[in-house]
Structures are given as C-alpha cells and as structure tokens.
Amino acid sequence: MRNRRQRVATGTAVAAVLAVTSACGGEAGTTEDRVRPAGDSSSLSPGYGTGGGYGDDGSRPTGAEDRSGPAKTLALRADAELGEVVTDGAGWTLYRFEEDSAKPPAATCEGDCAAAWPPVPADDAEAAAGMDAELLGSVDRADGTRQLTLGGWPVYRYVKDARPGDVSGHGVGGTWNALAADGGRAGAGARPEDGGEAAPPAGGAQESRGPEPGGDAALSAAEDPELGRIVRDAEGRTLYRFDQDTAWPMASNCTGSCLETWKPAAPVDVRALEGVDPELVTTLERPDGSEQLSIDCWPVYWYTGDAEPGDTAGHGVGGTWHAVTPDGGRARAAS
Questions:
Q1: For bias kind Basic and acidic residues, which ranges apply (predicted)?
Q2: pLDDT in tens, 305-320
Q3: pLDDT tens-digit profile of 70-124?
C-alpha cells in the first residue's frame, strides 16, 4: 500500500487536523466531558474474530452440549445457498478450518478455538450414502485424541448453530466453511491445493471492486451493492471500525492477538481523498508509537480475511466489526 503520510501540514490542513484531534478528545483534561458512542466498552468483545475468527461471543444455544459426541453415520443435506453440505448423524453441519491442512492432515484449532468449534471424534464415524468412504480418516490432536478428517481436512462442529441443519458457521472469519462431500468447501469450489480455482470467502466478494491497486486516491468512497457507501484504501481494501474502540476519546482496543487479524490502516495524505471529507481524517498514536488512520475519530483497520480488493468478509464479524462509511459510521447490514 502506498502511504502518503502527512507528518507536517500547512494552512487549512493544519487547522483541520487540530480541529478533529480536539473533537476526538485529544486534549488532556477534556475526556470527562465527552459523550461516548453507543456500544462503547472498556473490555474487548470475545467475538472479535482473532486467531482465525472463532466467531464465539460466549453464548451457547440450546443443545450446545451435543456438539462433542461421535458423528455416527454422516449425511448429505441440500442447502438452498451452499448446495450439498455434510452433516453428522444428528443433522449438525460439519466444518473445515482453512488454517488447518489436509496434506498432511493437521489440526490447529486448540484452546478457546476448540471450545467454539468442537473437534469431531474419529471413532464411530461412517460415510454417508453417496460419499467415498476412503475419504474418511483421522488425525492425532495435541491432547492425544483422534479427530475425524474428510478428504484430509480435520472436521468440526460449531457451537453457535442453534439447530440441526444450521450453517451459521460458514464464512466466519473468512476461515471456516461448511464441508462438501469430497472435503472441499460447500458452495465455494476447491482451494488451489485441492486441484481447483480459489473462490472468495463466503459473503466477501462483491461485483463492485472499487479502485484498482495503485490508483491515485489514498482513500475513496465506493458504492457496495449490499452495504452502501463504504471506504476503501489505495489498494481497494475495505476499511473497518471496531465497536469496542472509542471515538471520544479516540482509542483503539484492538491489541495483542486481535492485531493478527485486523491490521491498523496507515495514515494517508488528506490531499488524496475521493468522496471522504478531509476534515474527518486524522491519525491516532497507538501504544507502540505507530500511527493509525481514523475517520471521524474512529480508528480504522483492514481485514486479513478479505481475499481480494473490494471484499467485505469482515463486515459483521463477532457483531462488533463493520465496514466504515465516509462519515465514520457503520455500513448498513448486509441483505
């Protein structure tokens, strides 16, 4: 990304930056008088989608305890959007994690991740009618248990599926996908290493891609067919805001492992904007001394789960991440 960082400004540009910094609570002694935005919190939401996008906010639907048992005889269920999806014998959708590997089989979902995505035991699992039984296998996990694999991919259930047949885990974090009968991603074609062409993450690809990488605008407002008017950077990447950050005073609560998934957007030259008011654009100094772009006092980020320019897979992750609008607001909910 070409970062036109404006370290020293003159004339009206300086006045605009100073005005926004003050409005964001940048002056000492003013924070008690600021009105905090709705959704402000001093603690991180456990659903922020880090470490591969667990998609877990701590709540559990009725029957969550049923997610850790044997799969028994698998089944193939027709889903209106994803096509044929693999389920266990009780009808719970089965998933694969893109940060695992199939060649050789390896499971990387541990700890909190495995609490949200319980590994399916390898014992007592049989192929569904119409499936190749030779695609079923197992992988040894770090705790000594054996996990079911399909086409080499370790198999999981999702605790947020409320009832058999739900596919709410598909597309979470851009890294979780319902399984097809051959171990591929349901409704998305095969990954390149599976012998097919890569498909964009669920909910990510949009027909309108916005500016091409290397364009003249450091930031631009683009019309997304589902989300409306949103902001993209010079590489065409969608920019996001985090509900657990604050604008008054301006502060980022995405730290530690959160930053593995959500990357702070670098400051830009306010003279190189298209459709974004330069008076709303300023920078935040992060705890490590680096600077982060902000729009209307909201720190903004790009999402590692977006595969291509124009993707919006980060919108709605954990219920706390939203594509940002040119005025710093949240983009509307996807239809």
A1: 57-69
A2: 999 999 999 999 999 9
A3: 999 999 999 888 899 999 999 999 999 999 999 999 999 999 999 999 999 999 9
Looking at residue 31, its amino acid is: T
Token pair 């996001």 is found at: 240
- 1 with 234: CB under 8 angstroms? yes
- Answer yes or no: pTM beyond 0.85: no
Q: Is residue 70 classed exposed, middle or buried when 0-12, 13-18 and 19+ CB atoms within 10 A define those classes?
A: middle
| 301-303 and 101-102 beta bridge pairing | unpaired
- Where along the chain do its domains lie? 11-34+205-323, 64-194
| Cα–Cα distance, 52 to 322 (Å, whole number) | 17
3-state secondary structure of 286: coil
SS3 147: strand
The Cα-based distances of 331 to 94, 223, 237, 321 in angstroms read 31, 11, 15, 10
